[in-house]
Design a protein that fits this description.
This protein has three helices and eleven strands, in the order ββαββββββαβαββ. It has helices at 22-40, 98-109, 129-144; strands at residues 2-7, 13-18, 47-49, 55-57, 61-62, 71-72, 75-79, 82-90, 117-122, 148-152, 158-160. It starts with a strand and ends with a strand.
Length: 164
């Protein structure tokens, strides 16, 4: 896998990962994004020590909307004495990644998450307005059933998205 530097129509630089098997690349991008979100959360993400002595994120457990149990979420974030289930979704070029958002919507609709829910997402900066509109539609539905939605920008800040 390698990282290439590109420019969008407005001359803004962006990086794109290329090479590797699709599943490997997606898993790596997902983990990288979880790490970025955790770092930007200024020490509020719960961690634990593994048997091997490594410090890892504490993942929320839940039964999804289809009844599949012992599912593992991304992070638990504590803020003002409240724990939140956080899912970090790097939607990339917004192709099949929209399925991730529909799964989150169904889990919220069926009250599958055991904690208040936060979605932190990002996507490639060079996607079309049509794809942005599709993402916005899913985010609106997630908000309607009680999910908090934040966009993660290139400056490693969470932005509370009020659109839709």
């Amino acid at each position: 896998m390698k990282i290439e530097l590109h420019r969008d129509l407005f001359g803004n630089e962006y990086h794109q990962q290329t090479g590797g098997l699709a599943g490997e690349v997606a898993a790596k991008r997902g983990l990288d994004f979880e790490n970025l979100v955790a770092e930007a959360s200024t020490g509020k993400v719960k961690t634990h020590q593994t048997a091997k002595g490594n410090i890892t994120f504490t993942s929320p457990r839940f039964t999804n909307w289809t009844g599949s149990d012992n599912r593992e979420g991304d992070l638990i974030l504590s803020h003002n004495s409240i724990d939140y289930h956080v899912e970090c979704k790097n939607l990339g070029g917004v192709e099949s990644h929209l399925q991730k958002l529909s799964e989150i919507y169904c889990n919220l609709l069926f009250k599958s998450y055991n904690l208040p829910f936060i979605l932190v997402y990002t996507y490639n900066s060079n996607i079309s307005l049509t794809k942005i509109s599709q993402v916005e539609g899913y985010l609106k539905k997630i908000r309607e059933v009680g999910g908090l939605v934040f966009e993660f920008n290139q400056y490693q800040n969470w932005i509370n998205v009020k659109r839709g």
